[in-house]
Amino acid sequence: DAGVIQSPRHEVTEMGQEVTLRCKPISGHNSLFWYRQTMMRGLELLIYFNNNVPIDDSGMPEDRFSAKMPNASFSTLKIQPSEPRDSAVYFCASSFSSANEKLFFGSGTQLSVL
Amino acid sequence: AQSVTQLDSHVSVSEGTPVLLRCNYSSSYSPSLFWYVQHPNKGLQLLLKYTSAATLVKGINGFEAEFKKSETSFHLTKPSAHMSDAAEYFCVANSGYSTLTFGKGTMLLVSP
Fold it and tell me: Nearest-CA neighbor of B61 among B10, B33, B19, B22?
């Protein structure tokens, strides 16, 4: 298995532009998580899906952020419009049933908003 | 509400010496506890997991952690550090259905 696949690995964009981050979870996993990591705030859960349905999006910073999971093998995190303070590493993770099981993390997307 | 406190932001050891990374948690319920490791430019990888079966948990790469309810601690240890252990380590708690609470992380530095 290739593990959790995220793309792109690096994204550099200008303030105001739309950014879309992509994630392919491990086949058979039915829980998917989006995390943001910064030096100041550490790892923050943004949103959590179970069986493609958003369960907890309380960590989504504001309306500029949106996430979708149209099917079991694909999820996107979109920022529109992007701002410099959105610069961070965004991780996608999946697990077999819930967060109480082992999480498998992707390699992350390093986002820089200029 | 639950919280996880990693007491040291950085720990420096020499290769071959013991490693101790400290973690305290607070939770209204008996939590599941995890340690994850993050190598540079990589995602997090599970080291070990505690779910009340045994208080001493053995993980990968020679790491282990002991759950002490009286001290609300879950410290990570390794008898002898290796250069490849240099990474950031996260203590994580889950006392609910879905969300995990991550500590701020401890950077382990290993010198020759």
Answer: B19
